[in-house]
């Protein structure tokens, strides 16, 4: 059975986080990316200990951490199982890392500024530069709202109306994130680390209300942007605005399964159809 655990990876002896933390991280990634599915039984503690070359107590500490995160559950006399939860908020990064283990990587993103996409990609792209991940081709499409035109959100809180001053601030944030994504991905191609690396960005005039990630045409992450009132600085003066809360927004994961009628398969299909419809109609090229 040990040979069957290669998908869990190995320990890095040079990493300072400790064996238990590394094991917990690799098991967590396997659960969040669907390699270990809801209600599936985990390998036994002796098998995990043998695979990683550690004591069973080390494995137990790793499992305790996952149990505290409510990712796994123990059943007396039966073993440890992935908790049977569906459409729970998940972390994006492990899924991106799994996507970049393939030769072909495609990511379609629709949202506000691309700031969270840049953050999620940063560490994954660092691993490509370090040779830890080696895709051959990367193709990313980003579709965001054009802050150069009037928007319902963001807005000035005092009036609840569109304000060019508010949009200019958001436009700077968006341009910084989008330009960084383009530069970082293209750099991989320029360095010869991948055969092909492309990023295409388009904008549209609709207000951003949600974010959508489509990864390798088989997995979707979806989350809503809550609207919140907060105060920002403009030319040294406080300005109350209605803003979009993008960071740390819960994302819900949907995956294509073998069943065409499954909820996940249908959601991924509808997401792809929506993205293509907007991309090919009202979205226009980003000029940077």
Count of discrete alpha- or pi-helical segments spanning 4 or more residues: 7
How many beta strands in the DSSP annotation? 13
**Overall pLDDT level:** 87
Instruction: Write down the secondary-structure element order.
Output: HHHEEEHEHEEHEEEEEEHE
Q: How does the helix and strand content classify structurally?
A: alpha+beta
As a percent range, the share of helical residues equals 25-40%
Could you give the distance between the termini? 52 Å
Calculate Rg over CA atoms: 21 Å
Largest sheet, in brief, is:
8 strands, mixed
Q: β content, as a range?
A: 25-35%
Q: Choose one word for the global shape.
A: globular
Largest sheet, spatial ordering of strands = 3-12-9-8-4-5-7-13
> Which runs of at least 5 residues are low in confidence (pLDDT < 50)?
none
Write the layout of secondary structure elements.
Elements: H1 19-32, H2 45-52, H3 56-68, E1 72-75, E2 79-82, E3 89-90, H4 93-99, E4 104-111, H5 115-129, E5 137-145, E6 155-156, H6 164-190, E7 196-204, E8 210-215, E9 219-224, E10 227-234, E11 237-244, E12 251-255, H7 263-279, E13 284-285
Helix pairs in contact: 1-3, 2-3, 5-6
Summary?
The protein has 288 residues and is of the alpha+beta class. It has seven helices and 13 strands.
